[in-house]
Specification:
By secondary structure, the protein is mostly beta strands. It has 3 helices and 16 strands. It has one domain.
Length: 308
């Protein structure tokens, strides 16, 4: 199974990353506890978050709205800008690392998408892993510079290394990565100015600069939050998420989502259910699906006589 076939089924994705942040971004969560709390804030030093989701098919007309699992998703971030990502930070002080990791339940595909920022420098890395092959695409650009080009480099899946310069339009707004838009919206501001309506974005799914429509609407009546959707000019969804921007007013329920958390993720317009899970469950399903996808390849190799 390739990403192309999954995109056809799920609609375009936008995911990778060369660095697995792992336990370093989730020091307060006991893997055995199954806790879904992912916010880790120290009194000094960088702020780290780690949040995990199970994406399943939505089954209409049944008591159990969750159908077959599609994927598990990890969202991780480290922000050295002094608290909320880019909130109140000078552009030269911006320093962050964002990561999204997606493991699919079938086909053996694992996608890891990272974005890093240091001052005005930006880098997006998108990797796709199958049991026996992989592909990498990297883009570098300068934030806050209208019409700035983005330089990309890609290789893998029997394609030779290839470079590309993606030219931006001088009239375009500054460029963002998908995760920077997601986290910047949750923090309430973006390092290169407020983004609303149509903004320029590096799209790893199409390996190009696209103008996406950034639409925000209130997420629910009971939680102070927003639902963010990023859509390409053809209407296809890059990604979407519901997020809590403030604590529910007057809420005394311990299970109420805390401010600054994601409550739902959308990878396509296909009806799905996103359930927050703990790191232990994420790790369990990741190992299970990775081993299951590897077994057919191991069975074939076992039938090949060894050379004497």
């Amino acid at each position: 199974m390739t990403l192309t076939s999954l995109v056809a089924a799920l609609a375009p994705l936008a995911f990778h990353g060369p660095l697995a942040l792992g336990p370093a971004v989730d020091p307060a969560t006991d893997p055995a506890s199954g806790s879904t709390s992912g916010l880790v804030a120290a009194e000094s030093g960088p702020t780290a978050t780690a949040e995990y989701f199970l994406i399943s098919e939505e089954v209409a007309g049944t008591d159990d709205s969750e159908g077959a699992p599609i994927a598990v998703v990890a969202l991780r971030s480290i922000d050295h800008s002094g608290g909320d990502l880019s909130k109140g930070a000078r552009p030269e002080d911006v320093h962050f690392l964002l990561e999204r990791e997606v493991i699919f339940a079938s086909g053996g595909l694992r996608v890891r998408h990272t974005e890093s920022g240091a001052g005005s420098a930006r880098r997006l890395v998108w990797r796709e892993f199958l049991p026996k092959e992989s592909r990498t695409w990297v883009a570098d650009w300068t934030a806050g510079l209208r019409g700035a080009p983005a330089h990309s480099l890609g290789y893998g899946w029997n394609r030779p290394m290839h470079e590309q310069v993606m030219e931006g339009d001088a009239a375009d707004s500054t460029l963002y990565g998908p995760l920077e838009l997601l986290y910047g919206t949750r923090a309430g501001s973006l390092p290169c100015g407020e983004a609303s309506g149509t903004v320029g974005m590096i799209d790893p799914a199409t390996a190009s600069i696209v103008q996406v429509e950034r639409a925000e609407v209130p997420s629910t009546d009971t939680v102070a939050g927003v639902a963010l959707d990023l859509r390409r000019p053809d209407g296809s969804l890059v990604m979407g998420a519901d997020m809590v921007t403030a604590a529910p007013e007057g809420s005394t329920v311990s299970s109420a989502p805390e401010a600054g958390t994601f409550t739902a993720l959308r990878m396509s317009d296909r009806p799905t259910v996103a359930e927050r899970i703990g790191r232990a469950e994420f790790d369990r399903l990741s190992r299970r699906w990775t081993v299951e996808s590897q077994r057919p390849y191991d069975a074939v190799l076992a039938r090949i006589p060894r050379r004497r």
